[in-house]
Here is the input.
Amino acid sequence: MAMVSAREWREIPGRYNLIGSKCECCGKIYFPARSFCPECRRASVGKMVPFKLSRKGEVYTFSINHEYSGFNNRMMPYAVAFVKNDDGVIIAGQLVDVDLDKIEIGMRVKAVMRKLNEDGDAGVIHYGFKFVPDE
Here is the structure.
C-alpha cells in the first residue's frame, strides 16, 4: 500500500477548492499557493493572502495522450490541457467528458471535482479537479 505524504494532505484544501494566493504588493495571483511572491520577494513576506480562483477559463493549449502513463488503460487516449482561468492563472489538468476531436484552443471549460485514483483495494481515495466543457 502506498503512503500518502504529509505535504499531499496539507495541499488538499487548495486542490479541492482551487485556493491559490494573491500578493497584496503587486496583485499577482499564484496556484498552487505560495508563501512569498517571486516578483516582490522580501516585500511580500506576510502579504500573501488566500485567493479562491475562478473555476472557469479557456483551453490555452492541450495534448492528446495515446500511450500508457500510469492511468488505467481503459482511459486511453485522454486529453490534458493548460487552462487559462478567468483570473489569468494557467492551471494544468485532464480534460474529460468531451470528444477528443472537438477540443480546440480557446474552448471554454470549467473545473469540476472528480476521483483521481486510490491506493490499493482498501486505500485512500484521491480527489482533485478535472476540466469539462462549459456549455
Observations:
- Strands lie at 19-23, 29-30, 48-52, 56-65, 78-85, 90-95, 108-118, 125-133.
- The chain has a mean pLDDT of 85.
